[in-house]
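Section 5.1 Outputs to date
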Amino acid sequence: MKHIHLFFTGFLLLIASFAYAQEAEFVASVSKNKLGVNQRLRIQFSINKQGADHFAPPNFSNFKIVAGPSQSISQSWVNGKASYSQSYTYIIEPTQKGEFTISSASIKLEGKTLKTDPIKVIVLDAVKLPKDPNDPNYIAQQNIHLVAEVSKSRPYIGEGIYVEYKLYVSQNISVNDFSVTETPQYNGFWNQEIKVNGLPIRTGIYNGEQYRYVVLKKALLIPTKTGKLSIDPMKMDIVIGVPTGRSDFFGNQITRNITRTFQSAKKIIVPKELPGKGKPNDFSGAVGDFSFDVSTSRNTLKANETALVSVNVKGKGNLKLFEIPEIKTPAELEVFSPEQREKVTVLPNGIRGTVSKEYTVVPQYKGKYKIPNVSFSYFNPETEKYYTITSEDLFIDVLEGKELVTNSDKNSPIKKDVLTTGKNFRYIQIKTTFSAIKEPDFYQSISFYLLLILPLAMIPTSIVVAKRNEARSKDVIGNKLRKADRLARKFLSEANKQIHNPDAFYLALEKALHNYLKAKLGIETSDISREKISSLLSRKGVEKSTIHQFIEVFDSCDLARYTPVTQVMMNDDYDKAKSAITQIDKQL
């Protein structure tokens, strides 16, 4: 027992020594920097070393203390690293609108007085608060934000930009699980996903407030045309742990898991046309900052030996979206089709690396041959100018091989006249023995009379069809029912496909109901409560029984996530949804 006691004593002393080894910090943080005059604010003062006392809060002028101070102490040991925190928390409420500064708080540690930095808070007009502040929809809307951030909204065609999808979560709630239900489309862009290593949690500012966030997805986009190009939203289902306002036996907050759908805002990119002024004739669409060279592996060789000629473009830009210039070689050099090589890395603002074409050259005759220089042009979006780089001439010296025979040589072949022998080069025959083929006369044939009678026979049929269509168009109630039935089938088609998969079925069913209301009411119903949906439908003149049936299906979708369901229940919920959509469309 003595040894155990000594071990724990040493362990605690080790933790304490680590806590004292770190530099003392006394900081203040607020739950939000902007709020309405009728909202409340949480402010926390924290010190990271033990032994502090004589805490003195600021005077909180222009604010009223609603609760506090509540004191808490936390101490942890993670991966060999000790941490300590002692906090004082207040809940305050502004007394008027304006821009205010919360002055410094102070605390004493080892005979020294530490102070926090002042914090600016902006108080705006009163905001509309929900009747129930614990409403899960309101809590989710206030504390979770799925955001798409674009590095540049007005790039040049061919200029690389990036889009980054971030999920911001406040300290008030927890995210227990999430899944991406709809990935964004990048129409009008060449795109390449940038690998995101894990999901490390960071802290940052969103709308002037402190949040935790993770980067979910990142992609490089290179516009390929002008006009308004849209980046569609990313959609997610998120399981949120929402405080219920109640505590357990030990005083810990009791949370309730709910699933809500979030989506980022649609982003509009308007690319600029590349300037026409100063554009080189050989410009092939390269946009970025590049270097260019042409080189050969060997300058001297023998006939039938090979040499490699490389054309290289190196730098940062749209390396995969333009043609590399081609070399021109003398006819005496046999050149094989080039092999294109790429060694590139995708970065947020473009592609960096080298692309090249390698030509295999095989000389046939002895001599010295010239490969003329090659030009490469590109546009730099930073300087907004065109640049042209011209390579040096290359020379290949073939030291051994057959001599090239020219027309001036004595042994050159002599041109001879063509001799006519035998039946070669006979005259073309110009007389024929063909005779005309006798065609039957179309006039007074069976086909002639059928085509004559057919239009007359179609007149009674057209009259019958027209009367039937007229009668059907007058059937207003029947037309409404048929239209409503088609609409219900359209929105519920995906749910019907998943009728044997409970999870996928209820997810598709709930999505179908939201999409139907979005199409009919022109609002995002996924962000509002059941009561709001009922109120909207009621104002539109929909009967209460129909609204009740519609909301029942929503409740079944929620219940199915936590309780087992049968095939009979799924079929019944599908029929209810179809009937409700049909009746709502008819009554609207």
